[in-house]
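Morning. Coffee machine broken again, so started the prediction first thing and wrote up yesterday's gels while waiting. Chain of 212 residues, entered below exactly as on the submission form.
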Amino acid sequence: ALSLPTEQQRELRNREIMLQRVHDFWVKGVLENSLHNEVLIELGMEKKPDAVDYPWEMVIQRPEQPNRTLPSGTKIIDVFDESGGSLLILGEPGSGKTTMLLELARQTIARAQTDPMQPMSVVFNLSSWAETRLPLVEWVVEELNAKYNIPRKPAQRWIEGNELLLLLDGLDEVVPQHRTSCVETINAFRQEYLMPLAVCSRVADYEALTTR
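Came back before lunch.
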């Protein structure tokens, strides 16, 4: 007798495929092979990803609260959780913003692979948003299809079920005339969906915006 997979089994398999694709491309292909190794080489450190301190100072800012410098050894996933799954990462050019975002991807993917209730981390570059300027939901579906070969139907289900964790790199790489619209699109999305989200930008480009 042939036993067909149940709908739940298919969903779990789709989830495993998604997490593995993000991990293989961004964590193995980019973080471990490039940015992270360069940081370790510069610092003369042994490669122990869980033990490496960030070579930059992390300061957390919250509305109506004083800025707080985080202690050495703080994990970015702990900052993300403490911030309620909503984080804006700002830094100077070359300060390691993308490295930090991909480190967050690595840690959240590992958590999602052991806990099916955790959202699936997925990395996008906002520079491609300016090409279509779609509502963020539609853009994410198109990016999942184009960049990760995920069919639109499961992609749409994941969004409607708040099953994704969006890691959006390069707000400063959006062409200047569309940057404010991009922020407004992200804000509109956050009003409608309870989805965890992190955004990276150069600090000067972000501070120049009239919409935050």
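Confidence is low (pLDDT under 50) at residues 40-53. Going to sketch it on the whiteboard this afternoon.
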